[in-house]
Specification:
Radius of gyration: 19 Å
Distance between the termini: 21 Å
CATH class of the largest domain: Alpha Beta
Number of helices: 14
Order of helices and strands: EEEHEEHEHHHEHEHEHEHHHHHH
Strand order of the largest sheet: 3-10-9-8-7-6-5-4
Largest sheet: 8 strands, parallel
Number of domains: 2
Length: 335
C-alpha cells in the first residue's frame, strides 16, 4: 500500500493528493466542486503574479476569491525579481495562505521573456535570492514546481533538483514533461523518478494522471511521495475521491458515478454566487472545454457553451445537451 500521509514543512497532507495550479481553472468554483467529493490533501490557486498580487482585492479578484472551506491551500507565485517578494508575501500572509509555491514551470513566451517560469529555473543566482527572501519573510512551507528541463539530460535535471533542495525548499513538484513539451505528449515518469532517487525532501509528480490506474503506475515508476492532478481534476472533479479510495485506501462515503449534468450545474451556480458577472462566462467556457471530455460527443457541449454570449444562454444550451445525452456513460479512458 502506498504511504497515506505526508508532511511538508510542518503542514500535514492527507491524502497525499495535490491540486495543480492551472490558469483559468483552479479558482474557488472548481476548488469547491472538487471538495464536494473530497478528500484533497492540498488545494492550489491559479498562478499569481507577484507584481500585481499586492494590488488585488481579495473580495473581488477572481484569483483570490475563496471560501472558508478551501483549506489547506497553496498560493502559487510567478516571480520575476527579488524586489517583488516582500509585498507579495505580506499579501499571502494576510490571506491566510498555508503554503507558498514558486512557479518554475510556465513556458508561456510572455512569461519566459520577462524571466519568469522556466526562465527563472535556469537562473540559479536570481532564484537563490528569491527563495531566500521568501523564507526570510515567513514560516510557511515553500515549494517549487518545475519541469524536466529543455532536454532529456538526466544529470543536469538531478543537479537542478539538488540545487533546489539546498536552497531549503520543503517539497518539489515535478511536472514530468520537458520545458516546451505540450500536454499531448506522454509524461516522462522515468525521468521524474530521478528526483526521488537523489532528494530527501518530498517529491510530488504531476502529469498524465487521469484515473486510478494512471496513479498507481506513476507511483510504481517514480516512487513519488504524492501525486499532483491537473487537467484530470477539471475533467473529473471527483478524481481525488477515486484516488483516495482506490490508491490510498481511504474510506469514502459515496463512490457512485455522479450525474454529470448536476456536476456542471453545481459549477455554474458556484460561479454565479462567487464571481462578478464579467468574470463568469470565460471561466464557464474554460471548465466546459475539459468537462465535456466525459462524453463521446462532448465537443458538441463545449461548442454550444463556447458560442454563448451570456451565462443564461450557456445554461440553456447545456441543459439541451444533457437532456439529449442523459443516458450516455463516461468515456472509458477516464473510468
Amino acid at each position: 500500500m502506498f504511504k497515506r500521509n505526508l508532511e511538508i514543512g510542518g503542514l500535514k497532507i492527507s491524502p497525499p493528493l495535490f491540486l495543480a495550479p492551472m490558469a483559468g481553472l483552479t479558482h474557488s468554483a472548481l476548488r469547491q466542486l472538487i471538495l464536494d467529493f473530497g478528500p484533497v490533501g492540498l488545494l492550489s490557486t491559479e498562478m499569481l503574479s507577484a507584481s500585481s498580487l499586492p494590488h488585488e482585492n481579495s473580495e473581488h479578484s477572481p484569483y483570490l476569491i475563496r471560501t472558508q472551506r478551501e483549506k489547506p491551500i497553496s498560493y502559487q507565485l510567478l516571480v520575476f525579481k527579488v524586489d517583488q517578494v516582500e509585498r507579495a508575501v505580506e499579501k499571502l500572509l494576510s490571506l491566510g495562505a498555508d503554503c507558498i509555491d514558486i512557479n518554475l514551470g510556465c513556458g508561456a513566451p510572455k512569461v519566459v521573456k520577462k524571466g519568469g517560469g522556466v526562465a527563472l529555473s535556469h537562473d540559479p543566482e536570481r532564484l537563490k535570492d528569491i527563495v531566500k527572501a521568501i523564507k526570510a519573510l515567513c514560516n510557511l512551507p515553500v515549494t517549487v514546481k518545475i519541469r524536466l528541463g529543455p532536454t532529456p539530460d538526466v544529470a543536469s535535471f538531478k543537479d537542478r533538483c539538488l540545487f533546489l533542495q539546498d536552497l531549503g525548499i520543503d517539497a518539489l513538484y515535478v511536472h514530468a514533461r520537458f520545458d516546451k513539451e505540450p500536454f499531448a505528449r506522454p509524461p516522462k515518469w522515468e525521468m521524474a523518478a530521478e528526483a526521488k532517487r537523489v532528494l530527501s525532501i518530498p517529491v510530488i509528480v504531476n502529469g498524465g494522471i487521469f484515473n486510478s490506474e494512471d496513479a498507481k503506475k506513476c507511483l510504481d515508476v517514480t516512487g513519488a511521495d504524492g501525486l499532483m492532478i491537473g487537467r484530470g481534476a477539471a475533467i473529473r472533479p471527483w478524481i481525488f475521491r477515486d484516488l483516495a479510495s482506490k490508491v490510498y485506501q481511504f474510506e469514502v462515503s459515496n463512490f457512485e458515478l455522479p450525474d454529470l449534468s448536476v456536476v456542471w450545474m453545481n459549477f455554474f451556480h458556484y460561479l454565479e454566487s462567487l464571481f462578478p458577472p464579467e468574470r463568469r462566462i470565460g471561466r464557464l467556457k474554460e471548465f466546459t472545454h475539459y468537462f465535456s471530455q466525459n462524453y463521446a460527443f462532448g465537443n458538441r457541449l463545449a461548442m454550444a457553451v463556447q458560442r454563448s454570449k451570456t451565462m443564461e444562454e450557456a445554461k440553456l444550451r447545456a441543459i439541451e445537451f444533457f437532456m439529449k445525452n442523459k443516458n450516455e456513460h463516461q468515456v472509458n479512458k477516464y473510468e
